[in-house]
Amino acid sequence: MKISSVRWGIILLGIGLFFLAINLGYLTHHVWWSLIRLWPVFIIAIGIEMIFQRGSLRFLAVLSPLVIAAAFVYAAFADNDYNKFYRRHTFNSNDYDYSHDSKRFEFERDDSLKSLKVNFDFTAGQIWIGPTSRSLFSGDFEYWREPPTCKLKRDLYTAEIFVNSEENDRWIFGNRKHDNNDARVFIGDYLPVEIRLKSTAASIDMDLADIIVDNVRIDAGASDIGIKLGCRSKEISVKIDSGASKVRLSLPYEMGIKLKRIRRWL
Question: Fewest CB within 10 A of the end CB: N or C in the chain?
């Protein structure tokens, strides 16, 4: 039997087992991110196979499929660590203790404003968004290496906030906490708000029941997304463009809903 056949067999078997484990609830869609992070392992495995496919050390070529199998096992265990990290924290409290350095941004309440637009560029981690009546915007952002930025642009009656907490990708073996940049954000509940959020694999929790939100746009990878809406706006548009994600939508009983699902086929 050719080593290349064994290698491809293990890859297909691993992918199939991951899909099955996700469907049965043993793994989450974040496992694909865990596996993608290990892409150098697949190159190393193919290199081992090419080096030892001939000669007296040919038996060492069997290390290639074993290394790939180990990558799948590691990704599965890393997915469990990823979910334990998210379940460990509560974000809607002011005494939350971040595990890394964090930076705080705050803009004072301005009653002359008629509308607000908030744009997030967010990396892997967990973000919680909720209401406040004390300020226009406030937030605590955890970071590993590069501190986040937050800018306010306004004219006479409108304001727009740009938040960037998206660090450069780091293909690091070992401590996964380096990629977990968490945030807790409060947005003013006294004016109409539009929220746009772009992220990679993340856990997104939006408590918008008391915010006058008109428009929500989320562009995310494989994520866990929860959105709670209220009745302070006459009409709310929510658009989610994401990969294989879990979406939870909470609505008051007096609110109607229209759903439209668009599938994209390669």
Answer: C
